[in-house]
Every structure is written in C-alpha cells, then in structure tokens.
Amino acid sequence: MRINQQDTQHDELGRVIYENEPFTGEVETTEPDGRVIELASYQEGIQQDPQQLAQAARTAFDQGALERSAGNVEAARSAFERAVATGDPEIGPMALANLAVLEASAGRIAQARAAFEQAIATGHPDHAPKSLFNFAIFQQRNGELAHARELYEQAVAGGHPEHARKALFNLANLAVQQGRVSEACGLFLRAMEPPFLGDTAARAHRRLLEVDSGRLAEACEVYVRAIADAKANGDEQTAAQARSLLHDLDPQYGRAERTIEVGNRTFKPADIESAEWATGRRPGYGSGYLDVYTRDGQQHTVFVDLGDPHDRQGYDALRELLGPGEL
C-alpha cells in the first residue's frame, strides 16, 4: 500500500500513523505539482532500511513457497502477506502473484480475485503480465468467459514475450469453444510466432491442424518467415528453433520444395554428385563434418548433428538420393 506523506501523522514514539494505526507500506513525499521526490518504506510505523527490507521480503517469500509445497495453506498465506507488506519492488509483486494462485487453489474466489488485481496493479514487467494471464484462466474456469476473454486480450496487448503468446493460445481455444473457428485459427497462427519460449508454438500449430487441417501451408509459412528473419538478423538460435518447429509441423516440407538442407547449406538434388563423411566413416557420436560434392566440381564441407531434427532430415534425404551405401 502506498500513501502520501500529507495523509500521515506521528505518535509520541515517532512512528508514522495512518488511520489511527502504525502504518506498514510505502510513504511518498511529493512536490506541489504532484511529482514524487522521496519514497520510503515503513513497517509498523518505523522506516525500514532498503537492504533489510529486501532480505525480510525474500525470507518471507521463501517461507511461503516452502509452506505451500508442504500443503500448509494458512502458513503460506501468512508468509506471502508478510512479503507483500514489506513493499519490496521485486519480491512484493511476486508474492502477490503467488498469493493469488494460492487463494485460487484454496477455492477462496473473492480473495483470489483481489490478489490477482493487486498483482496486476503493481505493473511489474514480469509478475503483472503473469498474473493477468493467470487471472484470465481463473475467470475462465469459473465460467466468467466474457471477462476471461477481456483479460486474455489485455495480456496479448501487453506484449510480454511469454505470457502474451500463452494468452493468444488460450484465447484461440476459447474461440474454438465458442464456435469462432476462423478467429481461433488466426490466433493460433499468431501464437506460433517468435520468440519461441516454452512449448507454446508447438502446441499452437498442433491445435491449429486439429481445428483446421487445411491451414498447413499458412502454418509452415510462419516458421519459414521466422527462419528468414532470424537469419537476416544473425539470430541462429531462433532460426534453429523455427527449423525444428517446421520439421515437427511438416516433416516433408523440405522435400516438397525439392531441395536438401544439410547443416547450413541448401542443395538442389540435381546438383549433388556425391557425399562422404570427412573422416571416411559415419561418426559414432552422432555429429561430424560431411563433404558434399556438386557437379560443378565444388566441395562443400558442412557440420551435421544427427541429433538435430533439421540436420537428420537433410541427411536422410541425402542418403535417399545417393543410396545408403554412399553414407
């Protein structure tokens, strides 16, 4: 809780008093124009040292997490509330987010809603979007579909790299349940876009094809575009993730294009004359350098990791073209 210094008093012990009680929370001092020039934290009316507050917040939060794991709901709730009361800018919002989930799990609907709303109101860059997403799930499970949809849309608009895409996925499933299939497919396609955090993209493309198998070409294009954009930006990690997702979506995609991708090179089948492992035999540990010879007399040495789905697909296509005896 945050109040203005003008709304406080002091008792005979020098403690900050608000509404006739020693105040716990943050007190801001402002200029006449409303600009905040000082912000201090108080516990039972006594100003706290920031480092001590941070340590107290962390200790209380860790205890809350421990008690929750042990199934001690009341003790966990008390610990999370103590962490929130410290006003720590990092631990406080995280404790609120966890308190909201705890209350939801305990079936305390009103308390859960209040905690979710408080966590969202903190504006924390990670815990507020996460709480917004979790609040939407909570409302959906409680049959508040219109509000759940609104919350998912807010989460999407917030643009958090992880929770916005998870919200897109859930919003798409909600649209399917409500019979808005075309809208749902568009949302699934958006949920597939990078950055690729967690398994949201894979879940989205699988669900998309369950809903409408005719969207395969559109889905493939999402990953093809992601690969091209990532390569242009020198982001090989995202490019590799997109290739893996594309292979999961459509293992035949590369062959349909009548090209063979081996390592970081792309060949037309008609251009390939032969290929061999640089060491003369297939590496026992699953990765190594492959020499690909093309009909223009060039030798192309590429690194191949047979544990990578993309590399494995290219290697298998090469063996199919040249015959297994070649490699």
UniProtKB/TrEMBL annotation:
SUPFAM superfamilies from the UniProt entry: TPR-like (SSF48452)
InterPro entries: Mbb1-like, TPR-like_helical_dom_sf
GO BP terms: mRNA processing
Pfam families: TPR_16
Gene Ontology molecular function terms on file: mRNA binding
Protein's name according to its UniProt entry: Tetratricopeptide (TPR) repeat protein
Source organism phylogeny: Bacteria, Bacillati, Actinomycetota, Actinomycetes, Kitasatosporales
